[in-house]
Amino acid sequence: MEKATPPCSRLSVLLWGAIIIFSIADLLGQVGPHLESNQLCFRLLGCNSGFLGYDALCHFLFGIVLGFGLLWLNIHSPKRFALLQAKEGWKNILILVACVALFCVIWELGEFSIDIFRSRILHIDLLHPMNVLLQPSDNDTMGDMAFCIFGSFISLLIARVIEPASLMFSNGHGKKAPDDSSASSQNDSTR
Q1: Do residues 131 and 49 touch, judged by C-beta distance below 8 A?
Q2: pLDDT digits (tens, 9 = 90+) for 33-76
Q3: pTM exceeds cut of 0.85
């Protein structure tokens, strides 16, 4: 008899894989070859000064980590972190994407607060000789949030395919499996 793999272990592999990929990408952008501040990157992608670029890739990957992480927390610690209550899987996907969106908004508010503190309280010139704001433009802020949310949506679709039970899809097709008691009661009523 083959032992079924619990959904938490598959999800753990996805979560750790996403964390490792995000960490490598983030380190390459900040510590390694400085892909975020490379002039070639600015010319080709916009990097961290617009909607697209290397910064968008990092936010997309972090959205994937957040999606898998929230799902893992919900399965691993259901009494403390009972986020998913709906019986329909698509409602659970919307709940998780909304939680990631809230996290992204709070993150961007934090970056805004840091920029205000550095410029108004500490009187640091964040614009000259180059723009070193955490939020250099509105495009950057909206791109950060959009890619984070998109990444979480992609992670939940991956989880939906790999482990439908993690999102409370009972038979893997987004429909609840028929209840045997209701089916037998319908058969009894037709006799």
Answers
A1: yes
A2: 555 554 545 554 455 555 666 778 888 999 999 999 988 888 87
A3: no
**CA atoms within a 13 Å half-sphere pointing along the CA-CB vector of 163:** 21
Q: How many residues does the chain have?
A: 191
Mean pLDDT of the chain: 75
| 46-49 long-range Cβ contacts below 8 angstroms, 24+ apart | 48/136, 48/140, 49/131, 49/136, 49/137, 49/140
Longest Cα–Cα distance in the chain = 85
Other CB atoms within 10 A of residue 83 CB: 13
| Better-scored residue on pLDDT, 149 or 26 | 149
